[in-house]
């Protein structure tokens, strides 16, 4: 028995106990009600109409089985994703195995792996030796662990750029070109270390220059893996550090200072992150793993030591999540449940007599039924009370969400891993974000609250340019968050694959990003991690904001200091810790993202991480802007990159910028001739929900300012006055559009073949330097009295206009003629805007001056008007639904 098993009993007990509290905390956070439970249970008849439904009632309440194998094995799950992992044998041949390289055409292929042979099980001793050897090599890291296991290919700091151990799991090819970099970086680390201490003095950058010392030895690792790897207070974004939670992370991939310092273009490690800890907890770079999470008191971390099993072909028994396989393309993410998957062949901790645990339906029915299955009538973001786990549930295919099977790995993030989910009954797909919960950490309660807050926030969002949240559930020690599946990958990935976008694509994508941001900001919520890696694109060219791990609802009462984001996209005020929690930080990041789309790199990428942050935070310089962008594009970027956040236009304003207004529409409309019909999956879900005529399902326009029936889209899709009807996807379709694919992103840019990543140095030679925030902007200086649209909240007299009105922001000199045409906006939008503005303005004295919108207290600001309208429309059809924003209705809608 491996040595760690000796401790597992007590630790497992402890963990189990703590997990309960963790899950309870989430459930409390999401306001579980017995009504929800009742509702979902009573939905059996309705569920029966949908293949996607679950049958909660089948759950038994048999006490939990012995915990040791399941959790141990599940932690080793990642090993099956390793490059050389063999397909697991599927006992009984009765498997529903998802194997798909495409991820889109996943199909159930019973017995697919029947001929596969498991890899020989490594002996524990071998494993220990391997670790020890690795440890010995890993002492270069003097302090702890940073970062996550994220080798998400979407991430600019993708491990492919860092290590030969990594590879493009999309292409299934190892990327060896950068192989020397890792060693080089390690060698440089000590020098860099000293340099960083200088650079990171508080006088320069406002965060604590503390290093979390931990031993690179496994002793420390033990502590890590026992903990819920989610940063504490305020670190929504900083998910559990996967390097800790998932030792599978390669040290060469570790994101810490070593990457920041070596992330310049010459290093092949662009856009790496510095990892800050919130009060000692790990936070890790965002999916880009260039994200910085944690509060300003965060601590700078050193990269992960070489404890990573990636140094070893053997899986760590302490893996908390699937390891960052460099051949994830292989689709080798086993559909087996973690308890079965890792144990069967890959894990040294597996037990040969565990066959009865090897269910092939993933995820297994939850131990704690947090909510019902997405798309099921009983589904709700709210949850039902925990239920004891039935040992027989693995064999019970009728439990909630049991029809959702975990497919290939889509990407990795700070919180965990994202898999394709497929419902073999309905054919629906979704993205399953898997987060491993370890809750014996003393601060797990707080972490649970954060995670619950993120889920709560997501559940409130519904917009065609925001990845739709469907719901969540817990299975064993894992939390699954179900999201709309966006199959096209991220902008970052497209840039890496196809090179810079053409201006037409940039305009179009930017418009959609802005639409999502306008909606988000209207809810007084800041994303805080806008960048190419966090923006997904579907095959129709529709853009979806994703990764709300750092999102924050800004309440009027407090705005804690935050140091969140991805350094190269991070606004100066965030780095300088001066009012870094404001909506305008997203606008800055958007400007960086526009440059990223134009050049494949964010601004200041010619500087290594900390130097770039220093530049951003302290220099008056603004980045070069490529001449490939039009004057309108350059101006748009200048608007976004104004150092003073108060001078940055709002998202709603920017939607009227010529760069956006003149954006060419998609070649093909999102909606076909029969555009009034939602996708079959949605229609099916609606029927299941008993909502009524799917053809009248209301949609949200891109600004979150309107709620229109889908059928209206056909009419307004050609209108330039409403920003994004053509980009609407209404409503969320877990399957995707049945429409033929319009031009692909590469066709936007006209670049069919990958182009080399342009050097920022080269760019500087052919670019127009930006000179401060108020450069030569033609319309910027044209002043005339006018009304302003503030975050979609209404026409606001000039004298009251402020881009980001709040108590801390003095009014800004308006941007007069910038959006001259706004008052001539369509009647539809005008009506929607003005009708809401009055009430809101009266009630809150908008804008600013201390009063803040509080969408979460039931006050109907315009953005919420959309949700309210949605709900009202639903209620007309289903009067029994609860309109209370805090009720399960929102979650239920979100589950469509
Ligand atoms: N809805 C989705 N559809 C398709 N792929 C997705 C989806 N959500 C996430 N992914 C993939 O998974 C990756 C990681 O997801 P995401 O960034 O949301 O995780 P995270 O843990 O929140 O990351 P971060 O470290 O940035 O906080 C993405 O880069 C993307 O490749």
Summarize this structure briefly.
The protein has 896 residues and is an alpha+beta fold.
Tell me what the structure shows.
This protein is an alpha+beta fold and 896 residues long. Among the domains are: 403-485, Phosphorylase Kinase, domain 1; 486-664, Orthogonal Bundle (Transferase(Phosphotransferase), domain 1). It contains 26 helices and 20 strands. It has a five-stranded antiparallel β-sheet. The radius of gyration is 25 Å and the shape is globular. The protein starts with a helix and ends with a helix. The model is unreliable at 1-11, 32-290, 293-401, 671-802 and 805-896 (pLDDT under 50). The protein binds adenosine-5'-triphosphate. Adenosine-5'-triphosphate (ATP) is lined by residues 150, 152, 154, 237, 239, 286-289, 291, 410-416, 418, 431, 467, 483-486, 490, 533-534, 536, 546-547, 549.
**Largest sheet data:** 5 strands, antiparallel
CATH topology of the domain at 486-664: Transferase(Phosphotransferase), domain 1
Shape: globular
Average pLDDT works out at: 50
The percent range for helix content is: 25-40%
Ligand kinds? adenosine-5'-triphosphate
How many H/I helices?
26
CATH superfamily of the domain at 486-664: Transferase(Phosphotransferase) domain 1
Backbone structural class = alpha+beta
Gyration radius, in Å = 25 Å
Specify the CATH class of the domain at 486-664.
Mainly Alpha
What would CATH call the architecture of the domain at 486-664?
A: Orthogonal Bundle
Question: Strand fraction band?
Answer: 5-15%
Sequence of strands across the biggest β-sheet? 6-7-8-10-9
Uncertain runs are 1-11, 32-290, 293-401, 671-802, 805-896
User: In whole angstroms, how far apart are the ends?
Assistant: 46 Å
Give me the count of strands. 20
Protein name: mitogen-activated protein kinase kinase kinase
Biased composition (Low complexity): 50-75, 159-168, 237-251
Organism: Gossypium armourianum
Region (Disordered): 1-251, 283-403, 717-769
